[in-house]
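W.,

You were right to be curious about this one. When I first looked at the sequence I had no strong expectations either way, so I just let the prediction run and decided to look at it fresh. Below is the sequence, 135 residues in total, followed by the output.
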Amino acid sequence: MTHIESDDFRIDRKMLSRKIERLNISADMKVLLSSIIDTTIEVGGRIVDVGARVMAFIFDLAKAYPGVAFGVVAALVLSFIIGSIPVIGPLLSPILTPLLLIVGISLGALDDLIDGGMRDHLNGLKSNLKSCGIT
């Protein structure tokens, strides 16, 4: 069994740990997220640091699309609050959670499209297509 050592595949675990330490969350959550970084799986006789890759992807996604990230967090917080209401919360939560996520993701994506990273990605794609002679 070998460990993937190529620079193309290497994830900077120290950088991820620093990002987790800077998050404004409880110490318990920081420990939980840090433990995810150490998660590995064996694929084809090689050890892949899947936990670090997932955390790096999450940080990249939140940086590229902050509106979507905020929409998801807001929807999940509202969902938790609704689920906490005695008697009717457990009945409403399974119905409202997907709807809140749809609304949160949609509004966040619109915000990112109008005012954020998605516009930059689309402009980059447009310039790449122009440079190839496709318009």
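Here's what jumped out at me. The two ends are 48 Å apart (CA to CA). And, maybe more interesting for your project: The beta strands are 2-3, 41-43, 46-48.

Coffee later to discuss?

I.
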